[in-house]
Automatic annotation (TrEMBL):
A single GO molecular function term of this UniProt record: transmembrane transporter activity
PROSITE patterns, alphabetized: MFS
Domain Major facilitator superfamily (MFS) profile: from-to ranges: 25-406
Keywords: Cell membrane, Membrane, Transmembrane, Transmembrane helix
UniProt subcellular location: Cell membrane
Keyword Chaperone tagged: no
Listed GO CC annotations: plasma membrane
Transmembrane segments: 25-46, 52-70, 91-108, 114-132, 175-198, 228-250, 262-282, 294-313, 319-341, 353-371, 377-398
Topological type in the membrane: Multi-pass membrane protein
UniProt-recorded name of the protein: Major facilitator superfamily protein
Amino acid sequence: MSQKRIYSSIRGVVAGVQADGHGKALLAIASSSFLLIGVQMIYPVVLPELRTAYGLNLGTAGVLLTVLWLSNAAGQVPGGVLADRFGEGRIMVASTVVTAAMVVFIVAVDSIVLLFLATVLLGQGIALFGVARYTALDDLFPNHVGTTVGVVLAAADAGQALLPPLAGVLAAAVVWQLGFAYTLPLFAFVALALWLYVPASTSGPGSGFDTFSRARLRDVGTALRKRTVLYGSAAFIVYMIVWITFTGFYPTYLLEMKDLSTTAVGLLFGSFFAVGVAIKPLSGMAYDRFGIRLSLLTVMAISGTALVVLPFVEGLLPIAIITVLIAPILGSGTITQSHLIQGIPNDIKGTGLGVVRTGGMAIAAVSPAIFGTIADWGYFDEVFLFLAGLAACIMLFVRRIPPGEHH
């Protein structure tokens, strides 16, 4: 395809999104994704200062991070139910306000017990936003779900790339509390934008999940057992295992197994997320155009092959190339979640997606402990080869999805 045709195609997609009349809503949702996901990733960066301030050992510090992830996972289903019941826009505003309050709580407390409590509540606050943004995008942009999900997830990657480094500098140079506190003005801006530009209930009246009746719960179970949703959910859950394990151990792997400098490792890890900022909208556009099968198979073939090659390359430039080739895996979340929100019935969409996200995040949250133990046994290279095997499993799941679903 020529550059002119590519440009024309992208311009057409952008025009289509704007024509839906919700451009400001997309910007507000993307901004909140940038902020909330970026704030969550401040924890690992500020952890050295937290260890010093509270006298934490590495084990306790690790538990703090696990608590954050598990709290976020546990909140996905309630967040989805509340979005179905009270409206997506209202829940996203509530998520922003609750998370901001917890940032204030974290900055103000001086007890390890209260720090853990604030961390749990912060994870719950962020979780409220997790499902509502996807169902809102499906309601507001029914013809461009993949594209808009890609934009919002790219904004999240930008938040992870930009907010934590600044937090680290402020925490080290001034005081650790400033590493969190500097984000508070952004919360006020984002909450106002969501309130002004995102409808209180994007799905309209009468479509909410009103009760926890057995019939409703059976509806959720029936929807999740549909072949297209079942295999899409399996692909998403395995992707979460790969993503959390890879991002958790890649910097350490490069330091210990590839003998790279700390500066080089930081640049490589940052480039991984930077590529994701571009990959996610492109993945979403590919999903809208070709569906889940072709788009996800392509992403997994590239990233899976790069993971196989990784243990066998040495030197900064070859590893940099491999890092860029692994990065397309970041588009998998865009593709799988776009597929799921179109496959789950509207009246239980938030609840159904919440169940899948809770399962995926909860399972993936314990995977670093398993793979970390394997690495401790001297099989660090094999960890990444196993991740490549999981990428192949995702390809098998995708091939089980009937061709042409949602297209």
